[in-house]
Design brief:
The structure is a homodimer. In chain A, the strands form three sheets. In chain A, strands 2, 3, 4, 5, 6, 7, 8, 9, 10, 11 and 12 form an eleven-stranded antiparallel β-sheet that branches. An eight-stranded antiparallel β-sheet of chain A has the order 1-14-13-19-20-21-18-17. Chain A has a two-stranded antiparallel ribbon with strand order 15-16. Chain A is globular and about 65 Å long. By secondary structure, the first copy, chain A, is an alpha+beta fold. Chain A has 27 helices and 21 strands. In chain A, helix 13 runs antiparallel to helix 23 and helix 15 packs across helix 22. Helix content of chain A is 49%, strand content 15%. At the A-B interface, helix 1, helix 9, helix 10, helix 11 and helix 17 of A face helix 1, helix 9, helix 10, helix 11 and helix 17 of B.
Chain lengths: 690, 690
């Protein structure tokens, strides 16, 4: 970490250098720039092929098809949820890995959903036309929600494809994305988590790195492997130092177009609260995991995710606590305001800043309560999430589609039902401990005298109350959930399950927070739209919008880093891994699994394992294919370095890098360590052996 | 943890049952009660002998002399600081243990101080007489500070003994304690930390338990082993189930006499903040420790202490979030108020409740700032602590003794100088990481716009600022510290060391917080004194005061627990330890050191290792001797169970227990595992072999 602090020092003066910045919309790819800088022509055919080979996973990451027969690759940490759900005390796929040598050994995942983009349509005019210019925030929000639901529903009915209207440029544009869905997804291969996440939390967001962070699945349709026209060919060589690489994936969220006022909210309200919550949770998860191996297994997924988010949050906060970052934002904003001043046609854009600031302050004031009560952090357990969904599904579904909370709209119904009817294992002891811990946090944040806290705790300690709720609820029973979901509000009300009653007990506060949240975001949307229009009018093409967990194209160069006077090359190799194991004396998390020790002699030590590039990525890009000019798969994104954590707010390639597993390393490990020859063959020739 | 929640349920109805409650003053031992309940006569001679054999250690624990030749025993976790300070990257006494087979192998500790109580004198009348009845809080505080300093100074001059005026009953009484000091303390024996703290954080505050939590030192005077007239004979058998045991030690702090208003502050302000801070720190320490073995070694002591305090804090908060606890306090308070009502002679006692509540609210409002800025949690590193002491010593020492901040009074001078001139190793990387992390926490708590935060960070990120301060300061150099300390304010000012300048930059805020803190505590003291007087007038003997890290006598019975329908016996044995190791498959922290594996065959498996009793203890009692009727050492306190964590607020023996290492187990391990025959002989016959 000390290194991070020193490096941030150097970062500042170059903050304005953009280099390979950009998470571009597939329908607005900067072709001229790519041509000029890289002599690369992104043809329609190239783009369309890569787009259709790209996958969004509902566990929050990206992936790509790599064979005609439905084989797809993502990160181990993206597939980890599925692995955890398939595991039990006897069979730990997360820890031990998995390989289906034959088709019938492939195991169906419990609630995995793949979305594959088919088309993009700009519906901005239609959305904005439906919102009266003089509507107040509540009316404007309702009108916008309604037209969006209508567009989505029409599209679903017409095409049968999942249809999402995506808000871009914080409200500057609305695009309709249509996806093909796959829900029969089967596990084909996973390495041991220790090898996928070699170096653990200490090496997370670091480079050099030596991780085989991959997981292979197969998409099925009608009980047969899906036939995939657009899949990526896997390059046996991977990329070279200095090569152009392109990344097609789903960056989750960036905050680069936020105004200074919004960035201050992130720095002063959102990140401090999020970090306190994460560190509170992490302590509990670590303490509980230490008590037994089975505890550790049950907590593993949540624990990894919390640690990852905590390390990312620490990095982001360190970035925002750098006054130079705020000063740059301030300078940029002042300069743009000066250009808008005294030009009546931009009056709305000039006024936008104050509107955004006012909305941000309102959201700040309810930020903690919103997260605890509406986002559910105060009731952290699967049982509460089920109960809340059942309660609200009963309330929302009778309403017209356009008037429902967004997650209950017809367009999202299939996805919601998949999650609600998941057969994933849920553990009573783990549910109790996470609920007790978050109820304690809730009481600490809101004070024990708060009427909501008193209602929630019902005169008991958090631990006693959590045990009572978890033991009393039936929502972990899938048949019970189906009964409540199908029966709707009447059945939910009649059953009086303790957990749906808890959700009900906080529902009026939760909905009030949600209402303010939605309305103030509508205010911000309209203001950002005005800013986006002004930017377009003044500077032409407005670049790329902030990330929205939708498909984007990034590009960059395979390139090392200058660190403390020495040049760090962009590739690591298997020999580097084995050297590190020795240096760290095999102390966990720097140890190897027995298979990697045993097969050391079979490996070509100079094969590249991981590499870094300047491509502009962020969380959600995990599992994104890295492709070359030919559109071939040369690697898979799995991380960035610490210096790229502030990319949430501003890109810089001075020290920031995206980290990938090299395709050559993947094939080397599969062939010589896992002896998965049929898989290697399928990946190289693009179809399964008959 | 689930067990804790269930057990707390049962705790409630019996909250009022006192059993063996009491941390009694040695000059107010409940002899009649001891006689009636246990047919035990605590004679003057018995008390005086045990008192003079008892030791307070400046690392925050207790101990006792166990040989005529200065040998003393405390807990490993009390001595751990000394072990850490004597260790280096090459020699890790904390991890590997230590045994001086001969006198000249004993290693002098760097800044250990032992205090042995010699006498107690009631000075309440003199203290109160010096405080004018009509003085406002500031004047009353100043007057009280002055008379206390005068009494301490007179006593020091007359007797040469360290003299502390101790505030008892929250201000109800003032006693003068005189101590003999030993500062030449040498390490004799320590087991490996893994065996002293077997089961680590998961088993901390749990029972059954299997820890050899001991550490042996020898006190020297004039270069020779100190000659100790009053030492405890070590019992080779330890106690039996059902035996009376007595504990002579230094409980740190309890809050049993707090009013309801004060208890609410603890529940709603103090504990939530403390836990957020501890969990924030723990996450950083764990992440840093995971990076390398040497990091882990450097962070070990702080890390253990943070984990211990976090687990204790979680337990205390769970206790206070039990509404029954507050309801009992409320009932008790209402009943007492009813007895005071309409009786003019108790008007001041009746008014005391509101005064305390008002003072508590003022202290609540500045609680977070006080802890961050005056208590220094926002600047967490040794360098800052040195710098603050140097700055303030320069400012305070020229003032009259009675007007200084208490820690700079003449009575405390020797202790302050011992700590300030300590040669303990300090690590630049660890200093930087702890300072950076706490500066980040400071910014998160007070907001980046706070003028103090801006002054502290000086336009840099916490990481950059921490690195600059730690690399820039010279206070880690003992000669530099001596120069500044001897030179006083003029030299401190002239040197402009970056860390003393940081301390200076926050000093006016820090002193203002301290002033309010001292004044409001004076208000509370006077109010509590009125309550104590009323209690005494109404009920005679007022029991025992809350713990103040001064010598107390507790007593209880060796007794198992009824848990979930089965009877848990009070003793564990070596065979239980080896069984647990097997059950847990030697997974850390449930593994053994090689020595314990190797010597398994030599051990008498049925020897008791740990035992529990109903004696009333709290943090600070760690290392207290457990003695029998004869005054012989039969064990050493090292922990309590989770159910005893709420003892901070109210004692209950329904499930709460104190945990000790059995003297028989200590001798068994020393003889058969560590093969320390000369030590065993010295402990059994009470003097070293010639």
């Amino acid at each position: 970490m000390k290194r991070l602090f020193l490096l941030l020092l150097c970062l500042t003066p170059c903050w304005a250098a953009l280099g390979d910045e950009g998470m571009w919309l597939f329908n607005q790819v900067p072709r001229q720039l790519l041509h000029e800088r890289y002599q690369f022509d992104a043809t329609e055919a190239w783009l369309n092929h890569v787009l259709k080979a790209s996958i969004r996973l509902n566990s929050g990451g990206s992936g790509s098809f790599i064979s005609r027969d439905g084989l797809l690759i993502s990160n181990h940490h993206v597939g980890a949820n599925a692995l955890q759900q398939l595991s039990s005390e006897k069979k730990n796929y997360l820890k031990d890995g998995f390989y289906a040598r034959t088709r019938d050994q492939e195991i169906r995942c419990l609630d995995m959903e793949l979305l594959v983009l088919q088309s993009i349509e700009d519906v901005t005019t239609r959305v904005n036309a439906a919102v009266p210019a003089d509507a107040d925030p509540a009316a404007a929000f309702a009108a916008r929600r309604k037209i969006i639901a209508t567009i989505e529903n029409e599209s679903l009915a017409q095409t049968g494809l999942r249809s999402d209207v995506v808000t871009l440029w914080q409200g500057g544009a609305y695009h309709l994305y249509r996806y093909k869905r796959y829900t029969d997804v089967r596990l084909v291969f996973a390495p041991e988590q220790q090898m996928a996440f070699y170096g653990g939390d200490p090496d997370n967001f670091e480079f050099p790195r030596y991780d085989l962070d991959i997981c292979l699945f197969r998409a099925y349709e009608n009980g047969q492997p899906a036939h995939i026209a657009d899949y990526l060919r896997v390059s046996p060589e991977g990329p070279r130092d200095g090569n152009l690489v392109l990344v097609s994936g789903h960056p989750g969220r960036t905050s680069r177009l936020l105004t200074e006022a919004e960035l201050e909210s992130v720095r002063d309200v959102a990140l401090p609260f999020r970090l306190k919550y994460l560190k509170w949770e992490e302590t509990m998860l670590d303490a509980w995991s230490a008590r037994s191996e089975e505890n550790a297994r049950r907590a593993k997924q949540m624990s990894s995710s919390v640690k990852n988010n905590r390390k990312r949050g620490d990095g982001q906060l360190a970035g925002l606590l750098n006054p130079a970052v705020m000063a740059d934002k301030d300078k940029e904003e002042s300069a743009f305001k000066a250009r808008l001043a005294n030009r009546p046609q931009f009056a709305d854009a000039l006024a936008a800043y104050d509107k955004i600031a006012a909305a941000a302050r309102i959201l700040d004031q309810q930020f903690i309560e919103y997260n605890l009560i509406e986002a559910g952090q105060g009731f952290n357990c699967e049982s509460f999430r089920f109960a809340r969904t059942l309660l609200r599904a009963g309330q929302e579904r009778p309403k017209p589609n356009g008037e429902r909370l967004r997650e209950y709209s017809d367009a999202g119904r299939a996805t919601l039902e998949l999650a609600l009817m998941s057969e994933k294992p849920i553990y009573v002891d783990f549910e109790t401990i996470t609920l007790a811990d978050s109820l304690t946090f809730l009481a600490c944040q809101l004070s024990t005298d708060d009427p909501l806290v008193q209602r929630v705790l019902a005169g008991k300690t958090p631990g006693v109350r959590a045990a009572e709720l978890i033991h009393g609820t039936k929502v972990r029973d899938i048949d019970f959930r189906r009964q409540l979901y199908v029966g709707g509000a009447e059945v939910v009300d009649a059953m009086r399950d303790p957990m749906t009653e808890l959700a009900r007990a906080v529902d009026s506060e939760a909905r009030a927070l949600r209402k303010t949240f939605d309305e103030q975001n509508e205010v911000k949307s309209q203001a950002h739209a005005a800013l986006a229009r002004a930017q377009l009018a003044l500077d032409g093409n407005a670049g790329y919008p902030d990330a929205t967990f939708t498909l984007r194209l990034a590009f960059g160069t395979v390139e090392g880093i200058q660190a403390l006077g020495t040049e760090l090359p962009p590739f690591t190799t298997f020999s580097g891994l084995y050297r590190k194991v020795e240096q760290m004396k095999e102390r966990p998390p720097f140890d190897l699994t027995p298979r990697w020790v045993r097969r050391k002699g079979s490996v070509n030590m100079e094969t590249p394992l991981n590499f870094i590039s300047t491509a502009d990525i962020i969380g959600g890009n995990s599992g994104s294919p890295v492709v070359d000019r030919a559109g071939d798969f040369v690697g898979i994104i799995f991380d960035s370095n610490l210096q790229a954590l502030p990319w949430d707010y501003a890109y810089s390639d001075v020290q920031g890098r995206a980290t990938s597993v090299d395709s050559a390393g993947i094939l080397e490990a599969l062939e010589h360590i896992y002896r998965a020859q049929p898989l290697v063959r399928e990946m190289v020739i693009g179809k399964a052996s008959p």
